[in-house]
Fold:
Amino acid sequence: MVVITTGSLTAERIHSTRIPDLDHASGGIVQIDVQTIISLVWSQRNFYFSGRTDSMKQNDLTKMTYTSMFVAMAFVFGLITKFVPGLNLEMPQGGSVFGFPMVPLIFLGMLLGPRYGVLGGAVYGLTSIMLDGGVYHWVSFFSDYVIAFGVLGLTGLFKDALHHYGTFILAIVFVAFLRYLSHAFFGSIIFAEFAPEGVNPWFYSFVLYNAPYMLTSTSVTVVVGLLLRKRILRIAEDSGLVSV
Structure:
């Protein structure tokens, strides 16, 4: 059984959600505390809130709370693609064929802007390390996790992406390409030894390894995103996150 714990940033009580350990690998209970990672960011709230009025601080607090919710959703999607048979297809050295965790992160950037989008993406990158069981190289900590998922929050640079299909798709393709570059560029260096004999490591990383799963992940994100776009927009308008 896998236990994900999340909770309000200001609440003492933490709510737990239990999800079946589908591969039975844990042999019991694995405690994964997403709130602990979020709290690391929350501990730096004085940096975020310095010089801001009470109303601005309340607005920032609301956005931080929503950020933690989207990160938690991305983590759950990561669990699904990691353990559900048929969806758990991965490349040999990592890289999910179905990039469902990208969906909450691209919406996070569109709803709250690049500042919170990048923050949430980077925090998700840290939590996804737990799913992968560690990192191969210290550079991979940044290139395959913090940077690769952090750039997904740059969908917030595209104004009205939620209102226009073309802009919505362009935003997803843009940030997915940035993620691809982060994986492929640094991967060609730190994973060069995995390139087949006689194959250029740069060609292997950019074309043979990272391109296929990033194409499928981006396609899945676009399709699922389009299906959820109007519903997310309606919820955001009702909650005051975006204007009509």
About this structure: Residues 189 and 201 are 8 Å apart (CA to CA). The domain at 34-239 is CATH 1.10.1760.20 (Arp2/3 complex 21 kDa subunit ARPC3).
